[in-house]
Amino acid sequence: MSVPNITVVAGPAGCGKTTWICQQIQNLSASVNVIYFSPGTGKVPIDQTHLAADFPNIKVFHDGQETEFLQQLAKFEAAYIELGFYLELTSVETILDGLSYQSLAILPPKLQQSEYHAWADKIIPGADIDTNIISNQLWRVPSNGQVIDEDSLQEFWYEITHGAYGQVSRAKGIFDVADGRSLYADFVAGVPTTEFLELDLPRHLEGRPERFSGLEVLGNNLDESAMKRTLEDCYLSEVAITQYQQQVKQILLEEKIE
């Protein structure tokens, strides 16, 4: 069996693992077949969805697909495995079942003598996150099929990132908004904030979207119940979804005619 060039990428939350992988994929020739796997994300595959939207030609595997991933490896020339901070570094050995790989750690510049240094074949400087913050609470919630009012989402995101629900060190999410777009939100404490990013996905303007959306928040003393209630308050009703979609379709039709 031919074995692809396997790179396992690890590092603290928010240091830039997915960003680095995306950069490597961009630099590869379009003829190179690429496979990507990020275990441990459960029903909230934010990075997988984001990466698949940016690179529709690569093969993306989700949590629980370890067997399928191994079976497909021989068909690809390059493979990337992203280990979330919540996984043991040795877990990749079980996944790869004896296959050789390059271990690479994306680390903040000030971090020294960590478990990542002992594990990695190569260290890549990542985002300058605050390594003194020890977050012990990870909250995940899928919102598949829900459509969100964008103004309400902006307000909710501001509250999350400004301490309304506890000390947040990392937050990311994918949301379907009323005009049919899918938006990616990303926050890392201590790193300059970015605007919502529209994913390269078709506008969904026919009922509830049948694609992934969801939220992940990492921090301390998080009020999960309050976050859940506020998020649900952002969801639009069936009637509101229909009205918004009809309005957007009419606007798009008029723009096309012009």
Summed up:
The protein folds into two domains: 5-125, Rossmann fold; 137-247, 2-Layer Sandwich (Hypothetical Protein Yjia, Chain: A,domain 2).
Q: Care to count the β-strands?
A: 11
Q: What's the CATH topology label of the largest domain?
A: Rossmann fold
Shape designation: globular
How many distinct helices? 8
CATH homologous superfamily (4th level) name of the largest domain: P-loop containing nucleotide triphosphate hydrolases
Q: What Rg do the Cα atoms give? A: 20 Å
* Poorly predicted ranges: none
Note the topology.
Blueprint: E1 5-10, H1 17-27, E2 34-37, H2 46-54, E3 59-61, H3 66-72, E4 78-82, H4 91-96, E5 102-107, H5 115-119, E6 122-125, E7 137-142, H6 150-161, E8 167-176, E9 182-188, E10 197-198, E11 214-220, H7 224-234, H8 238-257
Parallel strand pairs: 1-4, 1-5, 2-3, 2-4, 5-6
Antiparallel strand pairs: 7-11, 8-9, 8-11, 9-10
Helix pairs in contact: 6-7
